[in-house]
Design a protein that fits this description.
22 strands; six-stranded antiparallel sheet
């Protein structure tokens, strides 16, 4: 009796030679090498499953129990680190259904809405990292910002058309390539081997130069607060105006990780992702 291939119950192995015969439920026989079989067909990723671990990930699709136009008081982290992003009173963004590819999004009003991750150290001083956000901006504003408790000391700002990073007092800025208002895009910012890169929907990166020294929120060793929907600079400011449906941070990514995450998001939200260089 031929052996059944794990996870592929309609296919069977009909030979133990180096070239293995595979027969499907219709009786059609295929040939596959032993090496490809042992890989478990892993060259074809499952784009319905998030492909990697993250430092944090927040998705509007994970919210339960809310109806269209309800206010969001908190959202739970989908990573194993169990952060919680919270909002109170007028800070609460609006949960809206069927905004992109039949999926929900959070609407930020540009004046008071934000989610607060508190004083957790999300990205340490010298980490390589990548940040993804699936966003639709109605106006130039900031989606993610972390910084210090005194004015002028902010550490990292991921906005609509430009990113800013303060590192040991030195300013690094990266312009996004051709950002568009009123449309969803996959925005990406990374530091890889100390070099800053930014993408919209993948492809060729915009180079922000080399900087391997510490990202500082102030005189302390990390950003004192991380905000989704604005930036922190002793207070929340530059509030996001537009939709955010998903955001994640991965520490120590590879280009392969970045392309896997980008491909996942493109599939989930019916967007474009060109393999990042």
């Amino acid at each position: 009796m031929p052996k059944q291939i794990k996870d592929f119950p309609e296919k069977t192995i009909a030979s133990d030679e180096d070239l293995i015969l595979i027969q499907d439920a219709a009786g059609i026989t295929y040939k596959i090498t032993r090496a490809n079989l042992l890989q478990g067909f892993s060259s074809t990723p499952n784009l319905n499953e998030f492909p990697t671990t993250t430092r944090y990930r927040f998705s509007a699709s994970s919210i339960t129990g809310l109806n269209n136009n309800d206010l969001v008081s908190s959202i739970n982290d989908l990573s194993e680190n169990n952060f919680t992003a919270v909002a109170s009173n007028t800070a609460r963004p609006t949960y809206q259904t069927n905004i992109i590819n039949n999926k929900p999004a959070l609407l930020f009003n540009g004046s008071s809405n934000f989610l607060d991750l508190g004083n957790n150290q999300i990205i340490s001083d010298t980490d390589d990292f990548v940040i993804f956000k699936i966003a639709n901006y109605a106006a130039d504003s900031v989606c993610i910002g972390s910084g210090g408790n005194s004015g002028g000391s902010w550490g990292l700002q991921m906005g609509y058309g430009i990113h800013y990073i303060v590192s040991n007092g030195s300013l690094v800025s990266i312009d996004f390539p051709n950002p568009n208002l009123n449309s969803f895009n996959i925005y990406t910012l990374a530091r890889l081997n100390g070099r800053w890169r930014a993408w919209i929907n993948g492809g060729t990166y915009i180079d922000g130069g080399t900087n391997i020294v510490n990202i500082r929120g102030s005189s302390n060793s990390y950003q004192q607060k991380t905000i989704i929907g604005g930036k922190w600079d002793g207070a929340v400011m530059n509030f996001m105006n537009g939709y955010l449906t998903d955001v994640c941070v991965k520490i120590s990514p590879t280009i392969s990780d970045i392309n896997s995450i980008g491909s996942y998001y493109a599939n989930q939200y019916n967007l474009i992702w060109n393999n990042a260089s």
